[in-house]
Amino acid sequence: MSTPMTKSSPKAKVTTPTDREIRIERVFAAPRDRVWRAMTDPALIAQWWGRGNKLVIEKFEPTRGGHWRIVEDGPEGVNGFEGRFREVTPPERIVQTFEWDGMPGHVIIEHVTLEDLGDGRTRIVNVSLFHTTEERDGMLNSGMEVGLNESYAALDEVLARMDA
Amino acid sequence: MSTPMTKSSPKAKVTTPTDREIRIERVFAAPRDRVWRAMTDPALIAQWWGRGNKLVIEKFEPTRGGHWRIVEDGPEGVNGFEGRFREVTPPERIVQTFEWDGMPGHVIIEHVTLEDLGDGRTRIVNVSLFHTTEERDGMLNSGMEVGLNESYAALDEVLARMDA
After folding, report:
1. pTM for the full model?
2. Which one of A116, A132, A154, B163 has the minimum C-beta count within 10 Å?
């Protein structure tokens, strides 16, 4: 069920600006409004977030104070993820919490910015802030980059299929 | 609806061990098992957590990965609080997240330890870790100490009423 385009898709740039942060940057070949829709419409999220794994989007309320919860059913088993929206400013900014059921109570703050590059392309910048360096390093060592690039490759495909 | 014993009850010791933490310490005249019950039984929590305000305990699942949500209806209005349990080790340790609806997505990690003082008394130590110093200072400047001491005074009363 892996995404065939993974290998040919550009890789996200992953850096560590501080000892409690991970910064992810990736350009997509679609205008910002389209990227925004793909990131906030549950029917579209279901097509890329799980990298081909079955997803159940149990809750997705993209508004300040709203909650989200997604359960992924893949070869590694069933994994739940959830969080809450701190800020939702269409079409440019989402700040939300992120928590994996496997480490309940370890909460990441994701600051996601969509930059309109003015030529029909959009840059997603995602800065994640952790409570501790240990939690940050645990995420870096979890194989997150592989999953991230697979999700983004699937997002490329969804964006290509969407109407402008 | 304020608690009449507030003025005569001991005040909690509040310190700031690091620039992202608040440490709260308070001794209670009850054995540890009794304090544990008062802190984990919703029917008992309802008697002290709200300092006399009406409480609705919508969810309280004190187990790893469980959620909690309490809505307080007081003179300042309706305020919801929620979080998730990271660790629940009876009768000595709870680690949980804490979030106020008024600042959704700003998540505090509370490390609560119950120390058996061996003479029928119990010390509660609560170390809260914030993502940023600004959030920590916002909490310190919110009047939290007044509410905290009112809650603890009400907890004194609940503990005195409970069977040993």
Report:
1. 0.93
2. B163
